[in-house]
């Protein structure tokens, strides 16, 4: 393989590009070996021109072709494929930004990946220039052909051609590139860089600005809801959130006005309406008239998504007026603009296209005669001219939604926001005394959390945007929060700090500003109001993404953050009162994650981890030299005591076991180099009988992720048929974990035998998909249902535990209805899991697990064929 990668290596400087060097050991497999699975990937690459890189694993490397127009599902279409140099196997998961001046400079995402199955001898077919194969990916499937042509050129010219089968579709009817543009590994999208004449040059600013033309909603037409499915209405629901971008991307997007208000979701169940904030707080009592108007629509059940605003004298949204309306209980002034319907009358519409969901919503509102409910129209003008109009009308900006997109309950690249000015939330950490004729207070002191360390950092002041009423009202809210010390890691000094009343960091305000200095201080700021629909915790700087920098963050790594921290001064190394030695020791080079980062993460996650870990013995994975060094799996306590880590004895174990069930214990373990926490399936004092069993779905790494989703759903279906309630979480690695709580009645061997029967049943019924035998050779092209974690003393990774893998992913509990939207088992990391929890608010996918009372019955055993 070294010779195969010579050209790849010669073209790249691995000290400057984030691309893998190929030095890491990879699977060396002969493609002709019977039973081996081979992976493929297609990377979307915005280099000198946008193209797609098609790569097939063969003989320990990725054979690669650049396809200018990308793959097509129409067998009549031949897509040019230019043969390029081989790439290393680990390139199949590479996403990032290749810096300017380097070979292939531009953004890269993994557009598709999975396994490929050659028809005949692949080496012979490759040499002859006629490769026939089947793809099983997230997006592409069925039979395909790569055929070498005799066209002249510096590089070999091939054609990629789809074969006629069930997966083929005419090009005139369907374009998979437009329908599914994003990464299959992450939340990344790739917006092609603008080339040629700028759109801005086409905007005529000399003519008077007119209101944008409204796009017809076709409310009277019947709606064919392709992708809708019957579903039980969820009790709670998280909204889709938009990603801030600098400018409008290319492509087919629908643009709406960005309202200056509060995001509100309406739940209709049995005709009863409840109104919730984006974090799940019930605000129905604050908006009784709006709830009555929703009830009058006549829906039996559903979830509707929208924004509430109050208009000023010119008819424009006024955030301060909205707050005043809430404070004065004047809900009759509040307008509820609705823009989506993810659930409607017994149907789950999240997989229905954006246009069809909105048409269905428009039809519901068509008969509405309430002055309080409005349909949020989208507009027909191009984004740039519409943004110009919106800004000149002093609106906040635009919300863009990709045409044809599904509804996803998280921040997504298929919804974007473009703002007219810098404006975001800040944490209020203090206020100054008023001067002159000013009453109440002089200015509010602002702060933001650092994205890397989580520290609360000073961000300047805001002293304008208040009137006499707001000064008086705000002061009443500020005084109860006064505290003696500044809640900042870098409080202002000298005259700027003199006479400041410091506050507990609990209030959140929205501020517009002209710019932010390199030191993170806002200039020319204007107060727009307090917010109580979002938590103040972890609010940081909201930075817009550019088309040429969406994927660049990984490439830049930790260097910029480290430099920034150096400018701010030394980092605090005490966490939960425990001194962290060597805090800047890098644990994961790919993300720059340090020992201190892990300690702080576990301190923050303690409220979520402690309930599960209470009195539960654990085993610990230590990485004293980082995850690339030697890892130590430690099950028993030794002479080197870990700070605050408890111990418990068990008759079956020669030495004491660990207990890590509170914040200090978790941080103490991190201080000793612990990265992973693995729990028993029992708790003290009843270690002789398990309180749960765990099924670890462990896939062949080459399988596409959709197989894991399907396998999890199938296993859950079996457990449902057995009558067992089950809960799921990502493993933080490649697979999924299914956790089944039990009453403490059965012995260990009985529970383990039962889980083995589950695994064997799935393997017997679907032998092409599942294996009940451990070992890589037995799960080739399959998913191993690992039941071996259910013996006495065996462990499985704990919920919210970090994994000792690249990027420091985390094992995260999820709701069942979130499964289909997962990108992978490593979707959440120590960097972004806090955002996940903030979006959940008070919800917890495992909240009811502790109250479940169930046991393995004789009937269940018979259903699995057990004696």
TrEMBL record:
Pfam families given in the database record: DNA_ligase_A_C (PF04679), DNA_ligase_A_M (PF01068), LigD_N (PF13298), LigD_Prim-Pol (PF21686)
GO molecular function: ATP binding; DNA binding; DNA ligase (ATP) activity; DNA-directed DNA polymerase activity; exonuclease activity; metal ion binding
Domain ATP-dependent DNA ligase family profile positions: 327-419
Segments for region (Disordered): 1-30, 185-229, 535-575
Cofactor needs: Mn(2+)
Top-level EC class as recorded in UniProt: ligase
Keyword DNA repair: yes
Protein EC: 6.5.1.1
UniProt keyword list: ATP-binding, DNA damage, DNA recombination, DNA repair, DNA-binding, DNA-directed DNA polymerase, Exonuclease, Hydrolase, Ligase, Manganese, Metal-binding, Multifunctional enzyme, Nuclease, Nucleotide-binding, Nucleotidyltransferase, Transferase
Annotated InterPro entries: DNA_ligase_ATP-dep_C, DNA_ligase_ATP-dep_cent, LigD_ligase_dom, LigD_PE_domain, LigD_pol_dom, NA-bd_OB-fold, NHEJ_ligase_prk, NHEJ_LigD
Record-level GO BP terms: DNA recombination; DNA repair
Compositional bias ranges of the Basic and acidic residues kind: 1-10, 535-557
Keyword Nucleotidyltransferase: yes
Catalytic activity field: ATP + (deoxyribonucleotide)n-3'-hydroxyl + 5'-phospho-(deoxyribonucleotide)m = (deoxyribonucleotide)n+m + AMP + diphosphate
Protein name (record): DNA ligase (ATP)
Source organism: Pseudomonas matsuisoli
Gene behind the chain: ligD
């Amino acid at each position: 393989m070294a010779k195969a990668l010579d050209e790849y290596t010669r073209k790249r400087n691995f000290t400057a590009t984030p691309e893998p060097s190929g030095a890491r050991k990879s699977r060396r497999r002969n493609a002709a070996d019977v039973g081996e699975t081979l992976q493929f990937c297609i990377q979307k690459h915005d280099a000198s021109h946008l193209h797609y890189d098609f790569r097939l694993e063969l003989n320990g490397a990725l054979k690669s072709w650049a396809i200018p127009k990308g793959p097509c599902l129409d067998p009549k279409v031949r897509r040019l494929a230019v043969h390029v140099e081989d790439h290393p196997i680990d390139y199949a998961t590479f996403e990032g930004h290749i810096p300017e001046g380097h070979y292939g400079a531009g953004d890269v995402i993994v557009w598709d990946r999975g396994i490929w199955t050659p028809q005949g001898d692949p080496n012979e077919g490759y040499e002859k220039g006629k490769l026939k194969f089947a793809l099983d990916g997230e997006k592409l499937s069925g039979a395909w052909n790569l055929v070498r042509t005799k066209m002249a050129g510096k590089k070999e010219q091939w054609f990629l051609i789809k074969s006629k089968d069930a997966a083929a579709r005419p090009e005139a009817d369907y374009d998979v590139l437009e329908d599914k543009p994003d990464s299959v590994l992450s939340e990344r999208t790739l917006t092609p860089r603008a080339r040629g004449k700028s759109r801005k040059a086409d905007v005529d600013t000399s003519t008077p600005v007119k209101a944008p033309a409204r796009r017809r909603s076709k409310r009277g037409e019947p709606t064919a809801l392709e992708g809708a499915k019957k579903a039980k209405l969820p009790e709670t629901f998280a909204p889709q959130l938009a990603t801030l971008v600098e400018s409008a991307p290319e492509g087919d997007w629908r643009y709406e006005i960005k309202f200056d208000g509060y995001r509100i979701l309406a739940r209709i169940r049995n005709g009863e309406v409840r109104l919730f904030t984006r974090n799940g707080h019930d605000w129905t009592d604050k908006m009784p008239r709006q709830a009555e108007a929703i009830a009058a629509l006549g829906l039996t059940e559903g979830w509707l998504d929208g924004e509430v605003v109050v208009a000023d004298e010119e008819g424009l949204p006024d955030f301060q007026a909205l707050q005043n309306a809430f404070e004065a209980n004047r809900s009759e002034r509040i307008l509820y603009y609705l823009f989506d319907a993810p659930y409607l009358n017994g149907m789950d519409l999240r997989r229905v296209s954006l246009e069809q969901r909105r048409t269905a919503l428009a039809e519901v509102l068509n008969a509405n005669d309430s002055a309080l409910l409005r349909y949020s129209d989208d507009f027909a003008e191009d984004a740039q001219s519409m943004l110009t109009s919106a800004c000149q009308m002093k609106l906040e900006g635009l919300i863009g939604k990709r045409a044809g997109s599904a509804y996803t309950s998280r921040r997504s690249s298929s919804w974007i926001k473009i703002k007219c000015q810098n404006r975001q939330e800040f944490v209020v950490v203090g206020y100054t005394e008023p001067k002159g004729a000013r009453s109440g207070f002089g200015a509010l002191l602002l702060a933001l959390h650092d994205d890397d360390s989580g520290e609360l950092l000073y961000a300047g002041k805001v002293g304008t945007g208040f009137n006499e009423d707001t000064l008086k009202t705000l002061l009443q809210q500020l005084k109860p929060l006064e505290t003696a010390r500044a809640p900042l890691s870098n409080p202002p000094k000298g005259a700027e700090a003199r006479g400041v009343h410091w506050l507990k960091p609990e209030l959140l305000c929205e501020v517009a500003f002209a710019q932010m200095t390199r030191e993170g201080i806002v200039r020319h700021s204007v107060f727009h109001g307090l917010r109580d629909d979002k938590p103040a915790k972890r609010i940081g700087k909201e930075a817009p993404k550019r088309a040429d920098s969406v994927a660049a963050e990984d490439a830049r790594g930790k260097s910029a953050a480290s430099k920034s921290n150096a400018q701010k001064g030394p980092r605090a190394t005490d966490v939960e009162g425990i001194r962290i030695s060597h805090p800047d020791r890098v644990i994961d080079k790919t993300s720059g994650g340090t020992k201190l980062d892990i300690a702080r993460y576990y301190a923050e996650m303690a409220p979520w981890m402690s309930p599960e870990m209470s009195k539960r013995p654990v085993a610990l994975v230590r990485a004293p030299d980082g995850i690339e060094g030697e890892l130590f799996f430690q099950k028993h306590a030794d002479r080197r005591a870990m700070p605050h880590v408890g111990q418990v004895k068990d008759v079956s174990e020669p030495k004491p076991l660990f207990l890590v069930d509170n914040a200090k214990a978790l941080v103490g373990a991190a201080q000793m180099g612990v990265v992973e926490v693995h729990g028993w399936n029992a708790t003290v004092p009843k270690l002789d009988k398990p309180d749960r069993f765990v099924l670890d779905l462990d896939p062949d790494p080459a399988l596409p992720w959709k197989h894991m989703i399907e396998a999890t759903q199938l296993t859950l279906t079996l457990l449902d048929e057995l009558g067992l309630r089950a809960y799921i979480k990502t493993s933080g690695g490649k697979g999924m974990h299914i956790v089944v709580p039990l009453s403490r009645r059965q012995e260990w061997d009985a529970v383990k035998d039962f889980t083995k029967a589950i695994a064997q049943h799935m393997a017997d019924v679907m032998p092409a998909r599942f294996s009940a035998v451990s070992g890589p050779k037995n799960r080739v092209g399959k998913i191993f249902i690992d039941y071996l974690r259910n013996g006495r003393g065996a462990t499985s990774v704990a919920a919210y535990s970090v994994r000792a893998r690249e990027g420091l992913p985390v094992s995260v509990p999820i709701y069942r209805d979130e499964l289909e939207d997962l990108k992978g088992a490593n979707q959440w990391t120590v960097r972004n899991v806090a955002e996940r929890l903030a979006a959940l608010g008070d919800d917890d996918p495992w909240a009811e697990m502790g109250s479940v009372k169930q046991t393995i019955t004789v009937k269940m055993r018979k259903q699995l064929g057990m004696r």
